[in-house]
Amino acid sequence: MSGPLLSIKNLSCGYRQKRILQGIDLEVSRGELIGIIGPNGSGKTTLLRAISRILKPLSGEIRIEDKDIWQVTSKEIARKVAVVSQAIEPLMIPVTEYITMGRMPYYHRFQVFETRKDQQIVEKYMSLTSTDKLRHSLLSEISGGERQLAHIARALVQEPIMILLDEPTSHLDITHQIAILDLIKRLNRSLDLTVIMVLHDLNLAGEYCSRLVLLNDGKIFKVGPPEEVLSYEVIEEVYQTPVIVEKNPLSGKPYALLVTEEVLQQSGKDGRTG
Amino acid sequence: MNKKKILQWTALVLSLLMLCLIIGTASLCIGATDISLKRVLRVLLEGKGTAEYSILVNIRLPRIILGLAVGGALSLAGAILQGIFRNPLVEPYTLGISGGAALGVSVTIVFKLYHFFGVMAYPMSGFLGAAFIIFFVYSLSSKRGIMKIQGMLLTGVMISFISSSIIMLIMALSKSEDIHGIVFWQMGSLDEPNLYLILVTVGCSLLGLVLSYFFCLDLNAFALGEEAAAHLGINVERTKLLLFLIASMLTGLSVSVAGIIGFVGLVVPHVIRIFTGPDHRILFIASFLAGAAFLIFCDTLARTIIAPIELPVGVITGIIGGLAFIIILNKRAVRL
């Protein structure tokens, strides 16, 4: 319909005196799968915290569906934006109970128990994320990959139009990395869910995202499709590390190969590859 | 909500109600003069006039009712604070909140504020003292990011020290009749002659229980972390503010009528959690009832154990609770 789903205008954000994000402008349309990349301390997580209304901007504004997020209630935001952050305490509660907590934004003031409809929604997304087999296990006892799935299920139960994920694949083996990101991509396609995720791994970001936002030192360095953002000139400038960028022969997406100091010195003798 | 869970919770609440009833009845029978249950019923039915009737209705029954209200209030306040700070070792006493309330009440006694505000001056000043300390401790804990729990507990102990020192200062400067009033009240006793104050305590204590239920799910989400709770649509700061006010009301009220009774809010929710898990939906009501039963039990013990001398009930809860504190601290890897 009209306008972008999310629009960030001239956003500056920070903690106390220290500014972390400066002059961020970004528009995200419905159904996009955005990856936020950048070196440590470049403000990736801060940007997610600003969008999810944890951190109040110092200046600028963030609009979701053309409403300033600070003009609506936190409950209203939670019905539109679900967050899978890294700091969720793995409680000793059954997985189903945890996932059911995702319905809380829909409860009215005096509601203490979930309704049948809530239960059906929980069931639906538990089977979609195949967390239904973990039903009675405790959140504290399942593996890291399973817990990530539970977090995603909880986020989906909020029935959001947008989901924010902070490094959903960190500490996971490649099996689970791919499983999680495949799931996210499927959800993005089948539910028309807008996804914004912070990723550390440039290659995974390039492979899965439709658009990348590269942050450096609190500012947007480059925005665009992976082919544009993941060029070796850009990466070397931002990360201060020599890389070789090739194309994945199957997907055609860019991937970056690292070059060690030793190899660099040797190859320096016979001319640099790019 | 699955049916099994609702059944379990109902069963727990009913058995705790039974427990309150049994302990309450036992407390009615036991004392300096033991009165058998049969006799109790007969005396009550016969009505006024006998000495036994006045022991039961004027002395023991008000105490039991007050024990119910104060025990429930302290235990609920403990459960609320533990939910907010996400730590099982905080409660009104260990955070120094009871001390703050006691200071408020002492000021009221010495400056005779009850002349101006009537008997409600006591609970009001207790509430103000408690609220002041809660927000003081909390602002310390949030200023330095998340204050480490050791620091918070030490601050609590120091606040208790400071307030009891100031209370002593106040006593040193005041007339002997006031000193008597302060000492008598501060020892911690459920012996409260003012029936109106007892009714206010019962009312506010139940009100606190009802109000706490507006926030039980919020506190469940708090356990995931404050940020995760905010992501579930909870207005974290407002929720904390309102819960702090409820906890201040419960603590201030309890301290103003019964003095400092420590550790009820620590022991009871801890034991209850073993049965219920961390879900505040059942934890609140179960802690309230069990706290009521626990305090009536302790009070009965306090007035019979070396009868006719009566111990302050705080002595009993202090010994049981202090031991429990040490056990909890050592047994579980408490998130410090």
How would you describe this protein?
The complex is a heterodimer of chains A (274) and B (336). By secondary structure, chain A is α/β, with parallel strands linked by helices. Chain A contains 10 helices and 12 strands. In chain A, the strands form 3 sheets. In chain A, strands 6-7-8-3-9-10 form a 6-stranded mixed β-sheet, with helices on both faces. In chain A, strands 2-1-4-5 form a 4-stranded antiparallel β-sheet, with helices on one face. The mean pLDDT of chain A is 91. Chain B has 336 residues and is mainly α. Chain B has one domain: ABC transporter involved in vitamin B12 uptake, BtuC (Orthogonal Bundle). The radius of gyration of chain B is 20 Å and the shape is globular. At the A-B interface, helix 2 of A face helix 10 and helix 11 of B.
In short:
The complex is a heterodimer of chains A (about 270) and B (about 325). Chain A is built from ten helices and twelve strands.
Shape of chain A: globular
Extract low-pLDDT stretches of chain A. none
CATH topology of chain B: ABC transporter involved in vitamin B12 uptake, BtuC
Q: Report the C-alpha radius of gyration of chain A, rounded.
A: 20 Å
Number of helices of chain B: 15
Intertermini distance of chain B: 33 Å
